Input
Amino acid sequence: MFQKKSRIGLALFAGAFVTAGAIFAQQDSNKALLDLLVKKGILTSQEASGLQQELTAPASASASPAPAALPAGAVVDKSKANPLSFKIGVADFTPFGFMDFTTVYRSTLNGGDIGSSFGSIPYANTANGQLSETRFSAKNSRLGLRVDSTVGDAKVLGYLEEDFLGNAATNINVASNSDVLRMRVYFLDVRKGDWEFLAGQDWSMMTPNRKGISPVPGDIFYTQAVDTNYQVGLVWGRTPQIRAVYHASNELAFGLSLENPDQYTGSAVVLPTGFTTTQVDNGSNGTATPNVFPDVIGKAAYDTKLGDMPFHVDAAAMARFFKINTYTSTVNSDATATGYGESINANLEIVPHLQLIGNVFDSTGGGRYISTGLAPDFIVNPVDASGAYSLSLVHSDAALAGIEWDATPKTKLYGYYGVTNIGKKTAQQANGSYVGYGYTGSANTNNKQIEEYTVGVAQTLWKHPSYGDLKVLFQLSYIDRTPWYVAPGALDKAHMGMGYVDLRYDLP
Output
């Protein structure tokens, strides 16, 4: 009896041992162990066979599935898994965005919305200069979707980003505030080996980068400002384009982009009598403007470390092509000009979490790219002796210096100074009147210089990896606008102070 009970006990022990082994070992190992126990006389063949059947039987429907095996030493970081992500086939879809409520106060009536019109700040000796404005808006709320996949050995990225700052009806503030959804960024990017190709709408390659020549908005520098037109002195655009980037190494990249052109004069340039204004974008007919060739932009970027601190620098150059035509009963003449511009942009982390930023841009015929078109690209000269119009390019430059400091994990402080300088270009008509930009007697909309000083705080109030975060954002700015011509007794500058308070909920 004792021997039989001992054999049953040993069998139960062996069964428990083998059951444990089923979690950590393969089925063949279990069979080998049972065979060994039979050989040593601990189990009979019949007992071993019964245990083997039990171990290989499928689990019941109510049983919890065993966790998937992980490689030795593997650690699962659940904080990196976006709770909104989902998979369709081989593609990973990640929605993103934020819900935003913006309050802006301006000391003068700027006539814009939550995006400031830097070039049209009113003078104090006007009614608009004596009026202030306060606006509430949720239109900066953003929707986005990122799609990552692979095709063979190529990495594919699809990116869509939208907000509600589209062109609105004139009665937008009267009743329903039906703000219009607009496309900010929408592109497809493919990288294979050292080469990367993009087609769609993205930030212009003239926009400074924070990292490489990355097309992703998080790697592009457009300040921390709440103002949806960002900062005076910033060179930027979001344009339809095709681009190619060659990654020479992990640190060095070269890019070439063909971008949607627009031969731009803006509304401040006075055009000659008789000239067909639809040949240029004067601020009201951009979609009808003829363009001879896309803007060509080249860029090189270098990312490294100075000591232990990250350092990024990029340099960009562009060429632009303009053309108008004079067509009368006696004249059929083309006038062309080639504009150009170049920039150098850098950011350096001088101590942990404290970053210095500097951007410099200089151009002849590149004013379109400065802070939402603060400068004209060119003027149109009056007809010459043959009766034909011609073009003269306008010089413009911009600079931005800034500091960004993550003072705590929840508090970011920032400050920027930006300046834009615009050259004058004038010509005289046969009747003695002047055309162009910045001539004696020109309107005070012909800006010579615009400066902006900005400070701000981004404070995280609450954050959870599964639910997102809640932030409050503050911005204070002061702007000076100086014209080329000041009439006797007139004010020589226009000034505006403004403040933003923004409550923002970010999706995780």
About this structure: The CA atoms of residues 3 and 9 lie 10 Å apart. The longest helix spans residues 2-24. Helices lie at 2-24, 27-39, 45-56.
